[in-house]
Amino acid sequence: MDLNFTDFLRRPSVTETFVDILLCAVPIWLAVMIGLLIGWSWRPRWTGLIYLGFRSKLRFLWTAPPGFGARRLWLAFTALSAFSVCRTLWSTLAAKKSATPVEETPPDGEAEAFSREKEMDVVTEKDLEHLLYLLEAGNANMEWQSMMDKSTPNMSYKAWRHEPETGPVVYRSRTVFEDASPEIVRDFFWDDEFRPKWDPMLAYFKTLEEDTHTGTTIVHWIKKFPFFCSDREYIIGRRIWESGKKYYAVTKGVPYGALPKRDKPRRVEVYFSSWIIKAVESRKGDGQLSACEVSLVHCEDMGIPKDVAKLGVRHGMWGAVKKLNSGLRAYQTARKQGAALSRSAQMARIVTKLNMDLVETSSRVEEEEKRGGGVEKNARGQKEQFGVDWKWIVVGGVALACGLHSSAIGKALMVGAGQRLARR
């Protein structure tokens, strides 16, 4: 290989791999050590005398602390970690060796116009069809796990998630804002100038391209992440369709040649976050369409282990939703007081009239699925709980209290780690 070893180690993929291994290994080690401590403290006193009688002084010093088999455990985990690193690096290098297809270019006279048209044609009706499939037609065929069902005096929120065999987790939510119009909610979601006031993660934003004919824009975002994770960069293409005061907003990650990738912040390339906004009847029961419903579908690959990402989303979801609601109310107040529309909010008002064939086709497929017995599935429900995996503590305590055999713990850890690697 022509790669310098130092440059190779500086690659983000290598760093992220080691962080992945660390995040996966530390909880297991912590749980096992707690289990070993509990098992050691509960052991009968006479077992220590028998144990010391069978061990020589040299053996006693070698396995410090006594009975833990620390050297064997470390060697076992080092071997498994090295295998994981080699496998990830090999797959990364193999993927980079594949040739990139070269696209045909038009004649020189049309090159500039073609480039401009192609650059702005980043969000198309195919993306809209994908949104309609996820939220309407294909919804019944997907296995959704219920995550949350909460409400405040002026908002209600429900959330689900779907875990495909490959790719990132897909999240779906339904939010109903009382005393809000679809137009104000549409402008609010698009207003990047106002967003930092309620979204503390957004550290930087800039509009790269905009098309005043279709309303398509390409924006550059940088989001702040916790100290143990580098910031993330997004190049987002977005566009809005409209049909009878019902808005279909599509945002997704798009390539942008004028802004090459860097080591930091790390770019998120797999990103799809889109929603349907419409007026609905208020829960006051007055028959007025004074509330606004937002049906959202969201998925992205941030380069974080899936289990860690799910844990972060679950624990931070309700806090983020409450900030969103507070931001919307502040935005409503500012607009009522005559605040000027930002450029991004003005672009939100440039919408594309929706091709009704798409909606009719989606509705027809959905009705056929319902007649065929398609029902929203919540098979797993809320079975998966986050927190300490107590089975590791039980295994550690039982293993130590029932014999203190130094190699038994290492074998148990190797089996558990092997199962984890197989699932990945």
How is the secondary structure organized here?
Layout: H1 5-9, H2 12-42, H3 45-54, H4 57-62, H5 70-97, H6 111-120, H7 125-137, E1 145-152, E2 155-162, E3 170-177, H8 182-190, E4 202-210, E5 217-223, E6 232-243, E7 246-253, E8 266-267, E9 271-280, E10 291-300, H9 306-336, H10 343-348, E11 352-353, H11 356-371, H12 390-401, H13 406-423
Parallel strand pairs: 6-8, 6-11
Antiparallel strand pairs: 1-2, 2-3, 3-10, 4-5, 5-6, 6-7, 7-9, 9-10
Architecture overview:
- Strands 1, 2, 3, 4, 5, 6, 7, 8, 9, 10 and 11 form an eleven-stranded mixed beta sheet that branches.
- This protein is globular.
- The relative contact order is 0.17.
- A hairpin with a 6-residue loop joins strand 4 and strand 5.
- It contains 13 helices and eleven strands.
- The chain has two domains: 124 residues, no CATH class; 229 residues, Alpha-D-Glucose-1,6-Bisphosphate, Chain A, domain 4, CATH 3.30.530.
- It holds the Pfam family START.
- One of its GO terms (cellular component) is cytoplasm.
Quick description:
The protein has two domains: 5-94 and 390-423, no CATH class; 126-354, 2-Layer Sandwich (Alpha-D-Glucose-1,6-Bisphosphate, Chain A, domain 4). The chain contains 13 helices and eleven strands.
- Please state the average pLDDT score: 74
**Residue share in β-strands:** 15-25%
**What about the largest sheet?**
11 strands, mixed
Instruction: State the helix count.
Output: 13
Provide the succession of SSEs: HHHHHHHEEEHEEEEEEEHHEHHH
Radius of gyration: 27 Å
CATH architecture of the largest domain: 2-Layer Sandwich
Q: Assign the CATH class of the largest domain.
A: Alpha Beta
